[in-house]
Specification:
Blueprint lengths: L2 E5 L40 H16 L4 E5 L28 E4 L2 E4 L12 H18 L13 E5 L5 H9 L4 E6 L12 E5 L13 E7 L8 H11 E12 L4 E2 L9 H15 L11 H8 L3 E11 L7 H16 L1 H12 L4 H14 L7 E11 L6
Parallel strand pairs: 5-6, 5-8, 6-7, 8-9
Antiparallel strand pairs: 1-2, 3-4, 9-12, 10-12, 11-12
């Protein structure tokens, strides 16, 4: 088997994939396959744990912006692997309570501040959210990047979803009170004693006092936030001096590591339409691009602002074992959510009928299995600090 290196651009492109820069390729003469040909452990040889640690470190180095993801040349064709589109259909009468739900096009949505978030919250979507958490943690090897110290006291998780990140942070930092807020009451009841959840809208006035939080975290909320500068200003007011805010957001448009994806590729068309629908609904879905979130943080008064970019492969074209698994997870997440992602933006934002959406999705599902374009999406990690001086 031969491998090649796909040199990733130093900045995540926001232009259509045909404008992406080309890549350099180098021959990899290794004959071992990261999934199937791992040598047996023998005394005096590298242990499985050491090997896995090395592969984890290599995965982070290859995926980080400016790195080079080594291509598995045996896996760049069409992959007919995982392909499902699970659906949940239900109907019920609604009462005026934050713990009730709304149903639309056979999917369940939040009832509190109905329509603010354009994606479902049913069991299928919750499983997908938990898989996203596992994928990001596998790629980044950590829960956060902001240097919050060993004993933070008050942590806020915006858009907590199923609460899995908040729960793991509560386990990792026993000193902290971790609060997760979301429009949907879908979090578990059995949680660590230092973790709590609240149904709330982060774009409404906050209930907590100023100078309260040591760390504010937000992940996968770019499809929901309408006014980023307002959110940054409000977060800055509620952070203690020296506290940190961190965002972890995917730029949801496919890029090609070698520039081979045509502009009319069905996956590119799909995400362009999602962006159009959300724009019609007042959402800037591409706020992550071109360092815009970091720039907005600086303009709002944050200091020590930093940005890291990791490239998430779509599919199994990466040679590194960890990145191959990350790519499989990410493609599965996108395929399992292909309907959930499309229904709100295309029916609410673009005026499509559900039948038209379903018909369009047929070609998109097939296109996701095309490994030859070396598709990936950038994950932007942006964090900044409130100045130590009084704000």
């Amino acid at each position: 088997m031969f491998g090649s290196t796909a040199t990733l651009p130093s900045h995540a492109p926001d232009t259509p994939p045909q404008q992406a820069s080309g890549s350099s390729h180098q021959t990899d003469n290794s004959q071992s396959h990261p999934d199937t040909d791992r040598p047996p452990y023998q005394t005096g040889q590298t242990s499985y744990d050491d090997t896995e640690t090395q592969e984890d470190e290599e995965a982070v180095a290859q995926a980080e912006e400016g790195g080079s993801i080594v291509v598995d040349s045996d896996d760049v064709g069409t992959d007919a692997g995982y392909e499902s589109d699970r659906r949940t259909s239900a109907s019920t009468s609604m009462a005026s309570s934050v713990r009730d739900y709304a149903f639309e096009n056979g999917r369940r949505y939040h009832k509190f501040r109905e329509g603010r978030y354009n994606f479902p919250n049913d069991d299928v979507e919750q499983e997908r959210e938990d898989m996203k958490h596992a994928m990001v943690k596998m790629l980044c090897q950590q829960l956060h990047f902001a240097p919050i110290g060993d004993h933070p006291q008050e942590i806020l998780d915006i858009g907590t979803g199923t609460g899995i990140w908040a729960i793991e942070m509560g386990d990792q930092y026993e000193s902290a009170n971790v609060l997760g807020i979301d429009l949907s009451p879908i979090q578990p009841d059995w949680v660590p004693p230092n973790v709590k959840f609240m149904v709330d809208d982060v774009e409404s006035p906050w209930l907590h006092p100023r100078n309260h939080f040591d760390y504010i975290h937000s992940r996968h909320t770019v499809m929901a936030i309408k006014d980023w500068p307002k959110l940054f200003r409000r977060s800055l007011e509620h952070l203690r001096p020296g506290g940190w805010m961190e965002l972890q957001e995917v730029h949801h448009f496919p890029s090609s590591a070698d520039g081979s994806m045509p502009a009319d590729h069905p996956v590119a068309q799909y995400w362009a339409l999602i962006n159009q629908g959300l724009a019609n609904l007042g959402i800037d879905f591409h706020a992550t691009g071109q360092g815009r979130l970091a720039s907005m943080m600086r303009e709002c008064g944050y200091v020590n602002v930093a940005e890291k970019v990791f490239h998430i492969p779509i599919g199994t074209w990466a040679k590194n074992r960890v990145l191959k698994t990350v790519g499989l997870y990410w493609r599965t997440i996108l395929l399992d959510g292909i309907q959930a992602i499309a229904l709100g933006p295309l029916t609410r934002g673009c005026g499509w009928a559900r039948e038209d959406v379903e018909l369009f999705l047929v070609q998109v599902r097939k296109a996701y299995h095309d490994n030859s374009c070396l598709m990936y999406m950038p994950l932007h990690i942006v964090y900044g600090q409130r100045p130590e001086a009084n704000y």
